[in-house]
Write a structure and sequence with these properties.
Layout lengths: L1 H17 L12 E4 L3 E3 L4 E9 L5 E4 L7 E6 L5 E8 L8 E9 L2 E9 L4 E2 L3 E4 L5 E7 L5 E4 L4 E7 L2 E6 L8 E9 L2 E9 L13 E7 L11 E3 L13 E2 L3 E2 L2 E2 L1 E4 L2 E8 L5 E3 L1 E4 L8 E8 L6 E9 L14 E6 L7 E7 L11 E6 L8 E7 L3 E6 L2 E7 L14 E9 L1 H4 L11 E13 L1
Parallel strand pairs: 2-8, 10-16, 19-24
Antiparallel strand pairs: 1-3, 3-6, 4-7, 5-6, 7-8, 9-11, 11-14, 12-15, 13-14, 15-16, 17-35, 18-25, 20-21, 22-23, 23-24, 23-35, 25-34, 26-31, 26-35, 27-28, 27-34, 28-29, 29-30, 31-32, 32-33
Length: about 450
Amino acid sequence: MKYNYILSLLFLALIACGNSDNDPQPDNVTLTCSPEKVEAGAAEGEYTLNVTCNSGEWTAFASDDCSFWVTAKVLDSSLTKGQVIVSVKANKETTNRNGSVVVKSGTKRIMIPVTQEAPMSVSQREIYSNSSGENITLSVVATGDWSVKSNDSWIKAEKTDSKTVTVKTEPNDNKTSRNGTLDIVSGIEKITISVTQESAEDRDINTPEGYRLVWHDEFNEGTTLGSDWTHEVQKPGWVNNELQEYVNGSAGGKRVTELVDGKLSINCFKGSDDKIYSGRVYAKVNEGWLYGYFEARIMLPKGKGTWPAFWMMPVNNNYSTNPWPGCGEIDIMEEVGADPNIVSSSIHCAAYNHTINTQKTASRNIGTAESEYHVYACEWTPDYLKFFVDGTELMTFRNEGTGKNVWPFTYNFYPILNLAWGGDWGGYKGVDESALPITMKVDYVRVFQKK
């Protein structure tokens, strides 16, 4: 009995050893796979591996280092011939990536390398062109040959070399912006570039009936503002808890005001010192005008934190004896980027102002304030202030005849253009510095008075 017991133990031990994964594969087991590697493009795709295994039992899977972008689906693994469908996700990284698929039968393994190309990339996917037309150079990175095609006749695109494309926009003579596209194609990859060209200058001066033009600036001469304009210089927090610093023309080698393409650009940007700089300018600050029709054609910037304005304040006012709001304030146009395309007009005086929630104001969502130029205007007479957007009345404030507390608008005021950042209103929903740099563009400012 004892002898038989020992033989039984030895037999069980032999069975256990024979089932071990570490046991060498029998010489007659053959495992092959074709192709021997997968070379994938950057786009999502599927690739087929043909597997032969004479044992009739095999499987396949993606290695751990690539399982987040490679999957392996096994077909007919119980037969001597089957397939593996290798699915590769689109590569959104900037470089090639590598992994492998493991084909396995018992302890026998075959490693199938999987390489995937980096996607094609372009230095810009959005182009913004001025109205006079310009040349823009784009850099292209692609593993294979590529081509470029314009989808609009006013956009010309030419492949300069294997890494560069030159885009040329023709002049836009329309008073509205226009949009187009161009495609860069490499194999099955395609990148569509959007092209936006701003509208032409509006050089037609439409004088309101009964008025005559007394002053204007079309911003189409030179590169900087002329002597009729004065820059404000103030540190952050000067008014309304605004975050920008107003400077006299430039900061850190960059202009806060400049004339480009026949328009005034008021630029707000973050300097290398991490400060936010912007521009606030006054027209005829020591003279101004008493009554008249004041208008400007403006395209507003985008971004949470912006606060552009076109408004007026009294000339040579002594704020110690005639403080705000009793001195009066005329806000022809304001907008905050947190509420895009909603423009407003307001007046402030002792009786009606925002500090006591009595200000007289009106607003309108015009839809394209941040993508198109619009004309904002105010007609100021001894009897009323009327505000307009593109010639349509937005608000009227009448002289009630009850004195200065309601109607301080009896002396000269001067126009102001500025682009604030943050502050009590501009930052009431916070600011998004990723929007910077931003630009408020002004086609013209015109002042008319009655004949």
